[in-house]
Design brief:
Length: 256
C-alpha cells in the first residue's frame, strides 16, 4: 500500500475505480497497469453500466508519472514499458463499452491531465487546475497527447504543451471542454457524479455501447499510435536533461 494501489467496487450498475499513491497520487507502472486492468475488466462485466474513475486523498488528483520510477529507467526498452502504461489506461477507457466519468477533485499535472481528458465526461472541483508539465523535464506529452488534443483541439494542445510551467484554472478547463462542469464544493461534485452515474445506469447498455463507439470514432489506430508515442518518451527520459531536471525538482521539494 505504501507504493500505491488501485481498488474497485461495483453496486447497482455503477463501478468505481480508485487509484492512490502517497506522493501526490503520482503514477508508477504498477498503478497504471492496475487501472487499465480494472477498467478493462469492469467494462466487460455485463452488470456494469458506468465507471467512475477517481483518486483517493484530498490533495492532488494526480501528479503524473512517478519521478522515482522515471529516474530508475535505464534503457529505451524499460522506458517503453513504463510509458506504455499510460497507453494501456487510455485505450482501456476508449474501448470500454460504458461511459467513464472522471472525478477530478483537485489539481492535476502531466499524465494526470491525460487521464482527465481521456475519460468520457470529467466533473471537477474548482481547485482542479491543470498543468501539462512534461516539456519542463525533457520529455513531452506524447502518449497522453492524443487524448488531450481530442478534448481541447490541436491549437490549445500545442499551447498547453509549450507552456509547461503555466497552470490553467478549472474555469479555463471548463471553458475549453476539458471539464464538463466545475463545482465549488466536494459535496456538490460528488452529488453530481452520483446523480449522473445513476441516470446512466438506467439506460440501455446496448445503446450506450454504440454511442461510445460513435464518440470515439477516428481513434481506431490508438493501439499502435500510443505505443509509438511511448517509444519517444522512453528514449527521451534517458537524457541528462531529464535526469538533472528531476533531481533539481526533488531537491526543491526536500527543502520545503
Amino acid at each position: 500500500m505504501s507504493d500505491g494501489y488501485v481498488k474497485h467496487d461495483r453496486k447497482d450498475g455503477i463501478a468505481t475505480v480508485t487509484f492512490h499513491h502517497p506522493k501526490s497520487n503520482s503514477l508508477p507502472g504498477h498503478v497504471l497497469r492496475g487501472m487499465a486492468q480494472a477498467i478493462s475488466d469492469l467494462g466487460s462485466d455485463p452488470s456494469v453500466r458506468v465507471i467512475v474513475l477517481r483518486s483517493d486523498g484530498d490533495k492532488a488528483y494526480c501528479a503524473g508519472a512517478s519521478f522515482d520510477e522515471l529516474v530508475s529507467i535505464d534503457s529505451a526498452e524499460r522506458g517503453l514499458e513504463f510509458f506504455s502504461g499510460f497507453a494501456l489506461v487510455i485505450n482501456a477507457i476508449r474501448k470500454a463499452p460504458v461511459f467513464v466519468i472522471g472525478r477530478i477533485h483537485s489539481h492535476t499535472v502531466g499524465g494526470g491531465v491525460g487521464l482527465a481528458c481521456a475519460v468520457d465526461i470529467a466533473y471537477a472541483h474548482e481547485s482542479a487546475s491543470t498543468r501539462l508539465s512534461e516539456l519542463a523535464i525533457g520529455i513531452g506529452p506524447f502518449v497522453v497527447g492524443p487524448a488531450v488534443e481530442r478534448k481541447v483541439g490541436t491549437g490549445l494542445f500545442g499551447l498547453l504543451s509549450a507552456t509547461p510551467a503555466t497552470r490553467r484554472s478549472s474555469a479555463w478547463c471548463e471553458t475549453h471542454g476539458m471539464y464538463a462542469e466545475v463545482f465549488p464544493t466536494i459535496e456538490a461534485l460528488d452529488a453530481r457524479i452520483e446523480a449522473h452515474a445513476r441516470e446512466l445506469a438506467a439506460y440501455s447498455p446496448e445503446a450506450m455501447a454504440e454511442l461510445k463507439k460513435v464518440m470515439w470514432k477516428g481513434t481506431e489506430d490508438w493501439d499502435e499510435l500510443l505505443i509509438e508515442r511511448a517509444k519517444i518518451s522512453g528514449r527521451l527520459v534517458l537524457s541528462d536533461f531529464t535526469r538533472n531536471a528531476i533531481a533539481e525538482f526533488k531537491a526543491q521539494v526536500a527543502k520545503r
